[in-house]
Amino acid sequence: MAIINVNPYLHFNGSAQSAIQLYEQVLGASTKEVVRLGGGPNGRVAHSVLEIGGHTIMVSDTMVRSGAQLRLPNQAVAPEGGVQVSIDFDDPTDLSDRFGALAAGGQVAFPVSETFFATKFGMLTDAFGIRWMFNCPNKKS
To answer: The domain 3-137 belongs to what CATH superfamily?
Structure first.
């Protein structure tokens, strides 16, 4: 079992689309995916994937947990910064084990659970204040 990917995840206060356009223009980013809240072309960015020089970054407007759902509120990016490290796993058990180990001494923001976009997903801040997103994508048939 191996970690299959590590990507920075940049969060914005409703300006993610503008940031994407800037990264396309200035850095030559190629937008691979954009998911909008509400599905409309002018909606807030719930998730996007950009490729820059053969590397991937992810961009969205701020996201918090509301009950068992994720939602995009109209709130500021957290004071500790707008970056999280996103790690993709190929095995949900490995994800859960490593998530629990990294959460020790830290704070779980979103417990590991199944979501509409992942077999397992969880968010935490580690003991050093670094924010992490753990993801085991849904298997494609």
So the answer is: 2,3-Dihydroxybiphenyl 1,2-Dioxygenase, domain 1 (3.10.180.10)
